[in-house]
Amino acid sequence: MGILDLFRRRTDPAPVQTRRFDGAAGGRRGFGIGTFGRTGTETMAAGPTLRSRARYQAANNPWLANAVGNLGAALVGSGIVPTGDADAVATFNLWAETADADGRTDFWGLQAEIARGLVVDGEAFLQVIDSDDGPRLRLIPPELVDESMTRDLGEGRFIVSGVEFAADGTRVAYHVLPGRPTDVFATNGTPVRIPADEILHIVKPLGAGQVRGVSWLAPVILPANELDQLQDALTVGAKVAAMFCGFIVNQNGTSEDPFEGESQPSLEPGTMTRLGGGWTVETTSPAQVSQIEPLLKLGLRQLAAGLGLPDHMLSGDLSDANYSSLRAGLLPFRQRMEQVQYHCLVPQLLNPVWRIVTRWAAAAGELPEFEADPRRFLKVEWLPPRPLQVDPMKDVQATVAELDAGLTSRKKAVAERGWALADLDAEIAADTFQRRPASPAADGEEKPKEQKGIQS
Description:
Helix content: 40-55%
Largest sheet: 5 strands, antiparallel
């Protein structure tokens, strides 16, 4: 081994085991890739702008309007219903009819409004109001929870975007601006401090440390706007192409105007116009964009992917779909919806409301056995409406098979369809009684004798 060999060994490149992340690379490949800071600060800074733009897109973009409606329907449908102690469920369902403090809908309707707010605004605030007839719920616009209020209160306490925290990091209050339906923007009045146990904040966080929500439309706001501009450009181009027009040119500049003294000449079907010498007619031929349909479909698929939706739930186009492709697209989508239902809606909205209503009913004497066994009444399960199936017959057969195999209960299967088992059994019994033929003994006739070998 010579001196040159030693020199080569010292200048060998790094071993192949060196770990590298292309996503963190610089240079040409990494140029233009944005970075993301702490989740809490990023969402605080961008949240209001994203909410405003998302509301505009959801109200004006037909694709996103369809997507928002389908996402809200998939989250709560006609309402997520409780199942548990029969007396507690009956009391809750009776209260749910008058749950809205504004008297516009019921608890199931509030769920639909909260689901839409969760998708468009990224969060929803619900105030619990005590009344003589029990607790009432009122939706608060997210912008009224003062996003400009961020300060240190000393002794470890602080306020972040209108949410007050104790020294141990728990939420203790919300600072809400006074507002009226006629206000165009959030008012500049003094915020009202409302204890945290009177406010329900429903949000699907992006990461640890997040305080306020971010619109679910955030990944598609810019692509949706660009797709809108593309469609506008194509529409204008088609309109221009449809306006067949011509230009009359005097080639040598010496000929007299053949239309002198007349109105501006126009092209009409079936007409022949004779021009003088030296005049010619030149027409326009606007260029047309080729491959428009694949480009638009790609844009719509991009929007659907950003929202986690199957393509047809955004575009409404089922021309390329079949039973297998629809089912394959719906299964992962429903899994994502179940994540939000059981990890956000249940712990942040449904369980707290159930506890509030059940304790109020117990204090009002409507659940006399509550004190003896509180856990019996506070325990509850929430069942979203069963998703509609492409083939209802197969769905019913699958439910019957699950019941026969002991994989589910009749109570759960009935609750998934939005019914209470006791009510359904009562209606079935009533229908059976009405269809039962009149007994001959009731008319004074002799009852026929039973034949041997035939059981009654």
